[in-house]
Amino acid sequence: MRIATFNVNGITARLPALLAWLDQTKPDIACLQELKAPQERFPKAALEDAGYGAIWHGQSAWNGVAILQRGGQPVERRRGLPGDPADLHSRYIEAQIGDLVIGGLYLPNGNPAPGPKYDYKLSWLKRFEGHACDLMAEKRPVVLAGDYNIIPTDLDVYVPDRWRDDALFRPEVRAAYERLLGQGWIDALRTMHPGETIYTFWDYLRRRFERNAGLRIDHLLLSPDLAPRLKAADVDRFARAGERPSDHAPTWVELEDR
After folding, report:
1. Do 52 and 69 meet the contact criterion of CB atoms below 8 Å apart?
2. Which site in 90, 99, 216, 256 is 20 to 30 Å from 61, CA atoms measured?
3. 3-state secondary structure of 254
4. Rounded distance, CA 244 to CA 125, Å?
5. Which residues contact 21 (CB under 8 A, 6 or more apart)?
6. 154-170 residue pLDDT tens
7. What is the CATH number of domain 2-255?
8. Of 89, 59, 90, 52, whose CA–CA distance to 74 is shortest?
């Protein structure tokens, strides 16, 4: 079973690229972020024609998350992160797919930091830590996949010293990521590529993709019971090199069937 996460950076503009990637790689489950489309503009029919059922949480011009299932229909468990009824941003969606619980997330960027946007990021992270802990307590196989907007370590950024004060790399957000790992969550990509320079995002500016000046900010965290089933994890860099690409590349894991 292949499970992927892909920040599409606008599903309307990137739909041809998304469909081409789905056709080429055929993930069984795909979590999408940054749809940048209201609920009614989600391309449900095009994805169904491609063989995917979907649930989604749209938002006009900003944010937006979705979960796709090849040859099936995800069963929605939750939309929106618990803990703050006033937070209406479409940044989290959760589904049951077979024996798996899939949480798809688009964590706030938080820049400029310090400031209100960074405070919101820290608040969101605190709520996410709490929900992740609750999911862990269910003792079910869970995958939390998405654009975390967190650079976990120096190995995950092309020039660490340039990013020390950025909201993606500040000590508070890296500490929150460490606390997630401390709950028992497994960073699948880093587990399969220990010590390797591997990125999931390259800015459009200054030929950063061509220079491999990237960041690793798209993560798939697995509950501990999935560790024996983890067989592979990687990044589909070819999608970032395609026509009208997102600035992210799809990132995926392969799990052995139970």
Report:
1. yes
2. 216
3. strand
4. 31
5. 6, 236, 239, 250
6. 999 999 999 999 999 99
7. 3.60.10.10
8. 52
